[in-house]
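User: Continuing from earlier, I have the next pair ready.

Assistant: Great, send them over.

User: Here they are, in order.

Assistant: Folding the first of the pair now:
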Amino acid sequence: MSTRLLSVALDLATRRVPVLPLRAGKVPFGNCPACRDNACGGRPNMKTPGPCTCPHPCHAWAAATTDPAVIIGPAWAPVWKQAAAVAYHPGGIRLTVVDLDHADAVAWARLTLPATRTVPTTRGEHWIYRGAMPSVNAVRDGVDIKSTMVYARWLGPGTGTMTALPDAVRALIVKKPSPVRPATATVPAGGGECRHRTPAYLERGIAMAEHRITEAASGVHVTVYRTFLAVLSVHGRCGCLTDSHAARLFAAAQTRGENARHCVDAWSNALTALGM
């Protein structure tokens, strides 16, 4: 067993960083015996959650946990014997990693992006900012954005002061499809103004969703998921939603006892259910 990697994972978990083991090739393991060796039908490289009979997705970023009972439990105990690295879910702790894959990408970042905490990688650097955003690969040559619904290798705490996620990073994905992004006007097929961009329509929908969550008499977790599903089914494909709208829904859920990880999981599962 790799006691060093297990120790790293447990240490991160005590600091509320959701972690998971990686095997050689930076590929994650399944989180339960039923899904070992991709038996549940997930994608071959297991980098994204696949359909399975478990109560929740159990691959890749969705397997990341802060629960020591899982980390040292029977499902993961044999995994640590083969583990090559530890990964974490940046979006689960409201972080964004700008993954710079080569020297030219690092040089570009130093000229373009605000200084923040940096972590050396095999070929480049990770620049880590406070704040979460959608994850997109190849936003430019050698640059990936890792935040929500992805994992990143843990390569140490890095150096420098972590700064707030800048608009310069958010702007890198403006032309990429994303269900939650900075608001931009969206014109539906057939012309005319998208009805969802009407302030009263969108505001009423978000306010109703907040009320539904905060007034739930029971089954809060299910209510949060179903509310997220309803909001995304109406507003998730046309570009209406912004990070501030999602933050309002997350805040409503957290007033009823949901933690940040539960909110991220519910939102991500709703996106998956809608094929987004």
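And the other member of the pair:
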Amino acid sequence: MDREQVLEWTRAERLGIAGFLEELAPDDWKRDSLCTGWTVHDVAAHLTLSTRTTLIDLLKGAVRARFDWERMEYDKARERAARYTPAELVAQLRETAGSPRRAPLSAPLDPLTDFLVHGQDIARPLGRPRPMPGPQTVAALGHVVASPFYGAKKRLRGVRLVATDADWSTGPGPREARGPAGDLLLVVTGRAAGLAGVTGAGATVLGERLA
């Protein structure tokens, strides 16, 4: 995957999310996202961190959270949400939209994946459509399935995924789960909300695993 292309895609997603957030009402920022225990404000704060987290920040956060990765990310997001207003977070997203910096240990496709998925974490509970661009979503899908970080291999054991809106599939089966690439991306990153657009025997298996 061409890194300049990935960086341009990421820049576009960051600016798109900034514009989306800018249109939200104050009460929308207090609403729950698809991430359990995270508000829209928390998720927005988390998205500003990918270009601002240093190795020292990561190590300190890991120690404070007793090396619980999810707890560390939650604590960092909550701290930043308490520190910055919605308008300030939107400005930060715009400020570093084109930055090539990314969090330590992350791959070039991780920031793009983060924004694609978290964009849905925010938009879907609010009932607001946010289309997911095809090539970017397919690239993120392939990355998540191949990466050990997201836990997708265990989640997809025995299931074949087939995108209905793109030339993409993965897994030997025997059970098949079919759906739009955007919904599949949510599923492979552990979000049961993505199953709303997925059909097939594999969808049933995935529903049980994501319950």
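Worth noting for the second one:
The longest strand covers residues 159-163. The chain has ten helices and three strands.
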